[in-house]
Amino acid sequence: MTFVNPQKNENDARTILKNCSWMRSLPQNALDDLLASSAWRTFARGEVLFHEGDKIIHGLLLESGRLEVFRYTTEGNEKIFGYIQDKEFLALPAVFMKHGRYPMSVRALEDGRALAVPKHAIHQMCLQYPEVTFQLLSNVCNHLYEMVNRVDWLTSSSTSERLAEYLLKLHKQNTEKKAITLPMNRVQLATYLGVRHETLIRLISAWQKKQYIHVDKNEVQILNPDVLRNLAKPAQRTF
C-alpha cells in the first residue's frame, strides 16, 4: 500500500468528499479540515488492505477499483460478505464500534485508490455538524436494513431461489454485457449463498441441462430469465 498527501490531488479529494451522499451538506471549512487530515491510499489487485481484528485507524472512501469484504470460516474457507464499488465508504460503521477493530478483512480485486479519512476526524465532524450525523445514521441504518433482509432471505429460501436472485442481481448491474462474470469461485459462492459446495455444483449442472443458463468457466449467460425471475420472486420486497 502507498499513502499520498491529498494536497497533491486536492481537487480529486474535494470532489469525492462532496459526492459522498452523507457529506453533501458539509460546509466548505469542514471539508478543508477533512482534507487536511486525510491521505490518498493506492492499492494493487490482490492486496489485503487490512485484516479482521486490525486496529481501526481510518475509513476509506473509494475513488476507483473494487474491493471484497471477507472472513475465514473455522474450516479455513473464505466467506464473502460483499463488495465495495467506487464512491462507496468502507468501514464507516466500524469507526464507531466500541472494540475499535476492523470486523472483517478487505482485499482488492482491482488496482485502485481511496481517500483514507481518519477515525478521529469522522468523530469530530459528527460532533460539530448534526445534519451530517443524521445523514450518516440514515446511511448506516439503510445498510443494516439490507443486511437484515439478506439474513431473512438466507434462512427462508431454497438454494434455487438464492442462486436465481444472485444471478439476476449481477445481471442487473451489468445489463450491457451478454454474459455475467462471477466475482468469486464456486467454493466462495457456495459459502456466500449459505449452501454446500456440492449442492451448488449439482444445481448449476442441472440448470445447464435445462438450458436456464450457460456456464463457461466464470462466465454465466442467462438463457431463460423468466424461470429465474419466478424463482427469485420471494426475495422482492415492497419497501
Report what the structure shows:
There is one protein chain. This protein is α+β, with helices and mostly antiparallel strands and 239 residues long. The protein has 2 domains: 2-153, Jelly Rolls (Sandwich), CATH 2.60.120.10; 158-235, Arc Repressor Mutant, subunit A. The protein has helices at residues 10-19, 28-37, 119-128, 130-156, 159-173, 186-193, 197-209, 225-232, and strands at residues 2-4, 39-43, 48-50, 58-64, 67-72, 78-84, 89-90, 105-108, 112-118, 180-181, 213-216, 219-222. The strands form 3 sheets. Strands 1-2-9-4-7 form a 5-stranded antiparallel sheet. Strands 3-8-5-6 form a 4-stranded antiparallel sheet. A 3-stranded antiparallel sheet has the order 10-12-11. β5 (67-72) and β6 (78-84) form a beta hairpin. α3 (119-128) packs across α4 (130-156), α5 packs across α8 (225-232) and α6 packs across α7 (197-209). The radius of gyration is 20 Å and the shape is elongated.
Short description:
The protein is α+β, with helices and mostly antiparallel strands and 239 residues long. Helix content is 42%, strand content 23%. It has helices at residues 10-19, 28-37, 119-128, 130-156, 159-173, 186-193, 197-209, 225-232; strands at residues 2-4, 39-43, 48-50, 58-64, 67-72, 78-84, 89-90, 105-108, 112-118, 180-181, 213-216, 219-222.
